[in-house]
Amino acid sequence: MTTPNKKVPPVTSLSTGKSLYIDGAWRSATATYVRVDPTFPTYETGTYAKADHEDVRDAFDAASAALGDWGTWTAQARSDVLRIAADILESRVHAATIRLTADMGKAHRDSMGEVRRSVAILRYFAGEILQPNGDVYPSVDPSVTLFTIEEPLGVVCAITPWNFPFAIPTWKIAPALAFGNSVVWKPADAASGSAVFLTEVFADAGLPPGALNLVTGKGREMSKALTSDPRLAALSFTGSGEVGASLRASVADRSVKVQLEMGGKNPAVILADADLDDAADQVVRGAMYCTGQRCTATSRVYVERSVAKDFKAKVASRLAQLVVGNPYEETTDVGPVVSEEQRVSIEGYLEQARREKTEIISEIEIKAEAGYFVAPTILGSVARESALVKDEIFGPVLVIDEFDYFAEALQLANSSEFGLSSAIFTKDLAKALEFIRRSESGLVHVNRETANVEPHVPFGGMKGSSNLAREQGRAARGFFTKTKTAYIRSIS
Q: From CA 283, how far away is CA 281, in angstroms rounded?
């Protein structure tokens, strides 16, 4: 049993009400909203401006005007701004870590890792922008020099979730800015404090007015204003499938580039020859770290029947070792979920598990008087058509099933409507390669958790997880630029 620490949180209030950053200036709004600490819900962590349609229009005005300035800066000058932003964020890593934890309850270790990842992303794109721009091609006409150049798209709208309030915005905003675009950014309201913090970093790095504009508030109240502006050139969204589909439909009749990442129900396959101790460790981390609030989290496990009993015992033992409690403590593994709404949603699935009389392989009992804590739980003997297997629960809940043949494991792994990440644990190289080829997911891991990704390689899913427009790494250059082909004919 773990009792979350009742220690007072480091962030007790940031009640400024000024969280709109438009045309290089902070401003307030008529309406505001209050955020509280998920660990200590009686403590307010900030009062934020609720943007309206006029604020969004002003943000697009500023972003459009900035293109004539920021878009003409040299690649080296834009690189310098991102590099300085990386240095500033690195110097503020401890404050950023606390800010992130205060927003969504992520454990200190994971929060700090995310902030450092944002630093790495900024440095990556500071270097990527200095790589070759375009290509030179041979022409059928010897008098013609034929080449392509990459140009900014224009105004980009970034809509980001609460679960990675530093990393996901950074991997959208940094490349958008690097390649000369301006940005209107709408973060999830739960992540408002982190959004203000990150915007301050960009501003302090020397970003010119209008290049980055922050509008905070409820997405459903701003959706039309964000997608209907005729100056919108590209939309990059991470969130639910329902919202992603709505956003895609809202710009379907216009020439707007769209990038959608929309969740996962990620499987791990455990073959009999796997190192079961290592697999158990990787699976529990993938499922339970960040309180399971990762679109890449491991949520389904298929283990070969001959080793299923042994593997279940190992994951139960590993789960029991997790420290659940105050996320500000450096020894904590699992903190609260982001909100009461999220806690109620996850508890609803656990109640369904009890109604369906599923096997409780292991759970950590939580005794807390406050805070949005959920018991990390591993389930077995779940019907394969159950919502526990199909739905993205987005919490510390793992379902384990058994299989007899490798072909069956592949079928089960691919049975979801989602296709973001998958993993296989085996010492058999041939089967590992076959799994890579046949897995219907955009990310495939061998002998590692589904939830650990690196920032310099393409990121994205298949099926219901994505519209196939990849993020991060060099793939970002392709999304955030447009290609122009030039023919130069020499005449004597």
A: 6
Q: In whole angstroms, what is the distance from residue 1 CA to residue 292 CA?
A: 19
Under DSSP, the state recorded for 449 is: -
CATH topology of domain 20-262+466-485: Aldehyde Dehydrogenase; Chain A, domain 1 (3.40.605)
Return the beta strands (E) in 353-454 as ranges.
359-363, 377-380, 397-403, 418-419, 421-425, 443-446
CA distance 34 to 14: 10
**3-state DSSP assignment of residue 143:** coil
In this prediction, residue 1 carries a pLDDT of 41
Q: Each residue of 413-440: pLDDT tens digit?
A: 999 999 999 999 999 999 999 999 999 9
Give the integer Cα–Cα distance in Å for 274 and 276: 6
Looking at the annotation, which residues are catalytic? Answer: 261, 295
The fraction of the chain above a pLDDT of 90, given in percent, is 92
**CA atoms lying within 13 Å on the CB side of residue 457:** 6
Whole-angstrom distance, CA of residue 34 vs CA of residue 43: 10
Confidence grade of residue 221 (pLDDT, cut at 50, 70, 90): confident
Residue 188: half-sphere exposure toward Cβ, Cα within 13 Å: 21
| Cα Rg, the chain, nearest whole Å | 23
Contact 456, 124 (CB under 8 A): yes
Q: Coil, strand, or helix at residue 260?
A: strand
Q: Retrieve residue 458's tokens.
A: 């393409």
| H or E element, residue 176 | helix 167-178
CATH number for 266-455 (one of 3.20.20.70, 3.40.309.10, 1.10.260.40, 2.40.30.70): it is 3.40.309.10
Closest CA to 215 of 204, 223, 203: 223
| Nearest one of 303, 300, 321, 314 to 379, comparing CA atoms | 300
75: burial class by Cβ within 10 Å (0-12, 13-18, 19+)?
middle
pLDDT of 331 strictly over 60? yes
The two most distant CA atoms of the chain are separated, in Å, by: 85
Q: Please, are residues 289 and 323 in contact by the beta-carbon 8 Å criterion?
A: no
135 within 8 A of 148, measured Cβ to Cβ: yes
